TrEMBL record:
Domain annotation Cytochrome b561: ranges: 13-223
Organism: Dicentrarchus labrax (European seabass)
GO cellular component assignments: late endosome membrane; lysosomal membrane
Main enzyme class: translocase
The protein's name in its UniProt record: Lysosomal membrane ascorbate-dependent ferrireductase CYB561A3
């Protein structure tokens, strides 16, 4: 029973940190960057961090830990597979829209695309995510997929999933830092220097800390053996984790 309680404490922390990340990045771009639009201006760029943090970090992380929720263990796995795939697809769509926002902004301003390390890591994470989703859909959801293929794909799917999350975190952290350096130059444009740590810098840095904390909690949930979903069993041998924990 202690293991179940520990899981739900971590899971609630994961949900809370994820919500804090979304609120923080949205408030930052609304309060200090002027809000949102889709017109090729800096207001369109503001969608980029919001959508990437929401999709590539928060939704992705929550989709990754879905199978660890003990309430799902004694039930048919197919609905949870579909929910997992849906959450990941939503995360991927938001990420792609976030990339469109920054590409359109750069093109409107005649700014080169994909020249920074941040952009390289971000595009690599999104591309791997797209490949991961397509292969996962084909390997784990299509009825024609053989069991032997699923067994072969599963460890690769799990490893690549964790790797994509950390690539996404690296992209977001570098992107936050890059943005703060760009806008907080303190050169007479009404802003203080980043080095002086004004309120916007504190919020941006805090967002980075929240993202890292979220990633660490997700990693904790994914790496704890006691919280892994038991292997599938026949319907008449449905697994009841709560009852088993109480009897041990």
């Amino acid at each position: 029973m202690r293991s179940i309680v520990s899981f739900y404490i971590c899971y609630l922390l994961c949900l809370g940190l994820g919500l804090a990340c979304v609120v923080c990045v949205s408030y930052w771009n609304h309060r200090w960057r002027g809000g949102f639009a889709w017109d090729g201006t800096a207001l369109q760029f503001n969608w980029h961090p919001v959508l990437m943090v929401t999709g590539l970090i928060v939704l992705y992380g929550n989709g990754a830990v879905l199978y660890r929720v003990p309430l799902t263990w004694g039930q048919n796995k197919l609905p949870w597979k579909l929910l997992h795939a849906t959450l990941m697809l939503l995360a991927l769509v938001l990420s792609i829209v976030g990339l469109c926002a920054v590409f359109d902004f750069h093109n409107a301003k005649n700014t080169p695309n994909l020249y920074s390390l941040h952009s390289w890591i971000g595009i690599a994470a999104t591309a791997l995510f797209a490949i991961q989703w397509v292969v996962g859909m084909a390997g784990f959801l299509l009825p024609c997929s053989p069991i032997s293929l699923r067994k072969l794909l599963k460890p690769v799917h799990v490893w690549l999933g964790g790797s994509i999350l950390w690539l996404s975190i690296a992209a977001c952290i570098s992107g936050i830092n890059e943005k703060l350096f760009f806008v907080l130059k303190g050169n007479g444009n009404g802003t203080q220097s980043y080095a002086n740590l004004p309120a916007e810098a504190v919020l941006g840095n805090s967002l980075g800390v929240l993202i890292v904390a979220f990633g660490l909690v997700v990693l904790k949930i994914l790496s704890t053996l006691n919280w892994q979903r038991p292997e599938s069993r026949p319907e008449d041998m449905a697994y009841a984790p709560l009852l088993q924990e109480e009897n041990e």
